[in-house]
Write a structure and sequence with these properties.
Elements: H1 10-13, E1 21-28, H2 53-60, E2 72-80, E3 89-94, E4 99-104, E5 107-112, E6 116-122, E7 135-138, E8 154-159, H3 160-167, E9 171-179, H4 181-184, E10 194-198, H5 204-211, E11 212-220, E12 241-242, H6 249-252, H7 254-258, H8 262-269, E13 281-286
Parallel strand pairs: 2-8
Antiparallel strand pairs: 1-9, 1-13, 2-5, 3-4, 3-6, 5-12, 6-7, 7-11, 9-11, 10-13
Length: about 290
Amino acid sequence: MLPGRTRTRSNFRRMVLFIPLGLLLAWVPPATAQGPSSGGVYHPLDTKMTPGLAGRWAAQLGPAGAVPLRYFQPVEVRLVQTGPAGGGRVTWFDGPARRAVPVAAPAAVGLLVGEIYRLQISDMAAFPGVSLYPTIEILDRLHPPAGRRYQFPVPVELTDEDIRLALQGHLVTRVVFLEEPRLSGGTETTTPTMVRDRSPEANLLAEADRVGRPMLVVRLGGRLPPVRNVPGMFFGNGALIEFPPKTPPASVSRIRAADPDFAGQNRRRRSTDRVQPGQNIVRITGGNR
């Protein structure tokens, strides 16, 4: 929930294990204009703001009277259609030393609410020799049963389409949100995914806040570290990462196991034939888990 909005729905939304997660997606050219948000309501946060600012504000301006807590929200990065079985590698940069920790995708870790992280995706069979460095900005947290956080990570899917757009010089921006079932309407509560087009000038955080609770922002572009004298800040601000306890894979992929068709349905809904050269779109994807 963004600053300036009441928190009357917070208790209801904490039943998150039974509420669908949604996705806002935008791909825009680097020079796309930044128009005002629509709807006549002022939203102080926007995905076009300086990366990291929305997360800091969201972490500091929680429910009235609440003390901001340092919480590691589990997030699972999935590489979709990037090779056999979606194979690839995700490298996290942990702590002030930016210690590189490579893991095979899908990769689940705990990221602090209010922080922004850079990661590397590489070793993708469909993109030999390609390494990209997306960022993930954590805005809010889920409320799973005690001791079961890593059974319900927030999913972040990076697809072959996203990677191709990034390599073409576009910036792909996504907002993953916890969907409010009373506002989802129609088929979103009965089908795995639904796509609705939005203008690229739209405020994605405002759109997500209108239909749910924004959880995180993902940005994927073509930016690469310099060959020499790489500044430490390129790999994030040095925030700590929590690595999950070693458990059987099934316990880390509870959301995916509960809905095995979601990834395939989502890929079909966001196929490259919907994107034309020079066409700018923002898409909202909602799904049941």
